[in-house]
Prior knowledge:
By secondary structure, the protein is mainly α.
Amino acid sequence: GLYASESVIIWNALVVLTWGATFRQRWMRKASELAYIWNVRNVEQWEPPMAEFLKRNIGLEKKPHPITGLSEPYFTPAQRRKRYLLSIVVTTILASGVVVVMIGNVLLRNAYGKDNLMKKTLQGIQNAVSVTALDVIFALVADKLN
């Protein structure tokens, strides 16, 4: 049968699902209402490329945009594949790091007896250190890739 915590998780999931669907529907209605009030229903949402993007991609091939006709940076299929592959590798490595931390948490939880003060203290320290370390690693990778 279901444990008490499992039934709470199921009810929580149902509440979050219902709230999310309701909130999204209400937001779409509000956005439509504001677009009507501000008279921007038929306005195209086009923004020029950011200056930072243009600076970082100076060596890229340029092609005319199919809609505006303006020349803008273009990634060749080879460059695009290289970036996709790099993204997959980095994501896999970072996700593996998260899995290792989770396994460490489970092992630490099972290493000491029930409700042991040492166990709770070590778990708290491990969680704090691992969250901080992963946050720093994610930020460094994001800065390096951007």
